[in-house]
Design goal:
This protein is α/β, with parallel strands linked by helices. The chain is built from 13 helices and nine strands. The protein has two domains: 157 residues, Periplasmic binding protein-like II (D-Maltodextrin-Binding Protein, domain 2), CATH 3.40.190.10; 148 residues, Periplasmic binding protein-like II (D-Maltodextrin-Binding Protein, domain 2, 3-Layer(aba) Sandwich). The structure holds pentane-1,5-diamine (N2P). The site of pentane-1,5-diamine (N2P) has 9 residues, from strand 9.
Length: 357
């Protein structure tokens, strides 16, 4: 009998020890579900020290992954292999993801810091009532350029890019909507045009820009232009702001034919396993001091009107990066064109890239 008790005791001790080791292993790898937060954001789009601060404050472990286009992000989320808790799509992608049931509603009562967002950036057409998305950064698409490298020349329009003086001087952001949008706007069409004839014309016009294009690139565009490897870039405004801090000679212009006004928002994908943590993260990023720190670090414009107060005045009053409502009226926000039309934009953009090579 005594022996049997001893054997049982031993089994219990071994079993408990094993359970303890397994639980420790799990938590050290962050696999306990509600203390791990998976965030999916654009490259170069957060101050990494904020991620650390969030981890320290909440005890959660953040798994941080990046994407370089809305299309890549949507494909990954729709596949469902990874369970993302927070993602940062642009407006037309948000509307598409809503349609495809890829987003969860956001509980505003868990976001006390939402009151700091400028109402100008709330309740927009792609998500009335902000039921599914909370503003992160906003901006435009335009031309960053180095007048000195162009012999003092100023650029004002998309069509200026076709000037033969710009041979092999242009870097383009690797975005289907951005590049197709520039082709369409340069012809006087809308960057949401759904007429296939117009889209083909835009693609053919882009093909004629090839001699002036040095490369189509990702986030490295900032380094290349700041280092004067090329004189001109078609970029998102915040990347231009970042380059201009590095190189004072640069200027940024939103072309006169029109361009894109965009809004990137935080969302909770429907596969989220840590919905409460996702709300905590969103609220953390809405905190004015942190939003200001983030904006200063990445160079993009914050929609947080309280955060603006913490930014250097020359940044927050720079009309090129904080244009007022009147001057953005002539710009267009990307619309959700529907699956087929979006695929057609992507197809033409790919063909253009092949032509370039
Ligand atoms: C930052 C990308 C900004 C995305 N690298 C603009 N929608």
């Amino acid at each position: 009998m005594k022996q049997l008790t001893r054997a049982f005791l031993l089994i219990f001790i071994v079993a408990f020890a094993l359970m303890y080791v397994v639980s420790k292993l799990n938590s050290s790898q962050g696999y306990t579900g509600d203390n791990i937060l998976t965030v999916y954001n654009w490259g170069d789009y957060i101050d990494p020290s904020l991620i650390k601060e969030f981890e320290q404050e909440t005890g959660m472990k953040v798994v941080y992954q990046t994407f370089d286009s809305n299309e890549a992000m949507m494909t990954k989320i729709a596949q469902g292999g990874t369970t993302y808790d927070v993602a940062v799509p642009s407006e037309y992608a948000i509307s598409k993801m809503k349609e495809e049931d890829l987003l969860l509603p956001i509980d505003h009562s868990k976001l006390p810091n939402l009151k700091y967002i400028n109402p100008r950036f709330l309740d927009l057409a792609f998500d009335k009532g902000n039921d599914y998305s909370i503003p992160y950064f906003w901006g435009t698409v335009g031309i960053v350029y180095n007048p000195e490298m162009l012999g003092g020349k100023e650029l004002h329009s998309w069509n200026d890019l076709w000037d033969s003086d710009l041979r092999n001087q242009i870097l383009l952001v690797d975005g289907a909507r951005e590049v197709m949008g520039m082709g369409l706007n340069s012809l006087g069409y809308s960057l949401n045009d759904r007429d296939k004839e117009h889209l083909i014309q835009a693609k053919e016009k882009l093909d004629t820009l090839t001699p002036n294009i040095k490369a189509i690139v990702g986030d490295e565009i900032k380094m290349l232009i700041a280092n004067e490897e090329a004189a001109v870039g078609v970029v998102w405004s915040g990347d231009a702001a970042d380059m201009m801090w590095e190189n004072e000679k640069l200027d940024y212009v939103v072309p006169e034919e029109g361009s894109n006004l965009w809004f990137d928002n935080m969302v909770i994908p429907s596969t989220s396993k840590n919905i409460d943590g996702a709300h905590q993260f969103i609220n953390f990023m809405l905190d004015p001091k942190r939003a200001a720190q983030n904006a200063e670090y990445v160079g993009y414009s914050t929609p947080n009107q309280e955060a603006i107060k913490y930014l250097p005045e020359d940044v927050s009053t720079d009309e090129r990066f904080y244009p007022d409502v009147d001057s953005t009226e002539r710009l267009e926000v990307y619309e959700n064109l529907g699956k087929k039309m979006l695929a057609y934009y992507n197809e033409l953009f790919l063909e253009f890239k092949m032509h370039k090579k």
